UniProtKB/TrEMBL annotation:
UniProt entry keywords in alphabetical sequence: DNA-binding, Transcription, Transcription regulation
One GO MF term: DNA binding
Organism classification: Bacteria, Pseudomonadati, Pseudomonadota, Gammaproteobacteria, Enterobacterales
UniProt KW Transcription regulation keyword: yes
Domain (HTH deoR-type) ranges: 3-58
Gene name as annotated: ygbI
A Pfam family matched in the record: HTH_DeoR
SMART domains on file: DeoRC, HTH_DEOR
Protein name in the entry: DNA-binding transcriptional repressor YgbI
Length: 253
């Protein structure tokens, strides 16, 4: 059986069952465990499936970024716990980047009493909050305005970031997994990449509901991060998959 035929059968089984074990695939297709692993890796690279502990499942694909308004009240407790943990670990007199998003907004709310920070952001809601209610120094990246997410995106925002030296970048994600951060919005990619490139430390802030989901564009591989901060709702399979990485995994809350 050639690889294309195996891929079709794997997709058919996963589509029918949702989750299929590697052991069952090796038995059904009559090939080695390593061959199935390579097949699954290829299909995962295409965004067709997602690896789970001991098996493979159909991919949860995000077709479009939810609006800022839609995300505001989703998983608010988890986002608060993530924000509180992150805030406690920001050294005094740091220059930090807050990526656009409601989880980074939760972190911004924890910084209102700080007057020692320089905060860089591409998020208009975060900028307004800190401008009106904190003593932080503030830089907004500018760039093309994304109305739905109330942020700046694109190459102009990325160029602004590349002129800076940032201590810690707190980067958000609408979907992520062992391969990295994904987004359906191509204009977000250069901003996240620039923030990663100019920062001494990179921290992912994302609640566990977004884990093991994908979108069209890979924004950053997970290996670029020093710390992943999510919540205690992360699945056992997720904890196992992420525990072997070079990053620190934090489950807040």
């Amino acid at each position: 059986m050639i690889p294309v035929e195996r891929h079709q059968q794997i997709l058919a089984l996963v589509g029918e069952r949702g989750v299929v074990s590697i052991a069952e695939l090796t038995e059904r297709l009559g090939v080695s465990h390593m061959t199935i692993r390579r097949d699954v890796q290829k299909l995962e690279e295409q965004g067709a499936v997602l690896s789970v502990s001991g098996g493979v499942r159909s991919a949860d694909r995000l077709a479009a970024e939810p609006s800022h308004l839609a995300k505001t009240n989703m998983y608010s407790g988890e986002k608060m716990a993530i924000g509180q943990y992150a805030a406690r670990h920001i050294p005094r007199n740091s220059c930090i980047y807050l990526d656009a998003g409601t989880t980074t907004l939760a972190l911004a709310r924890e910084l209102l009493e700080r007057d020692d920070l320089l905060v860089v952001t591409n998020d208009f809601v975060i900028a307004r909050l800190l401008m009106e209610s904190s003593g932080c120094k503030l830089i907004h990246t500018g760039g093309t305005v994304c109305r739905e997410n109330r942020s700046s995106v694109g190459e102009a925002a990325a160029r602004s970031l590349r002129q800076l030296a940032i201590d810690i970048a707190f980067i958000s994600a609408s979907c992520w997994g062992p391969r990295g951060l994904f987004t359906p919005d191509e204009d977000k990619v250069p901003v996240k990449l620039a923030a990663s490139d100019v920062s001494s430390k990179r921290v992912l802030l994302s609640d566990s509901s977004k884990y093991n989901k994908i979108a069209t564009h890979l924004a950053l591989p997970l290996e670029r991060f020093d710390t992943l901060i999510t919540d205690a709702g992360l699945s056992k399979a997720g904890r196992e998959a992420l525990s072997a990485g070079s990053w620190e995994l934090v489950l807040a809350g």
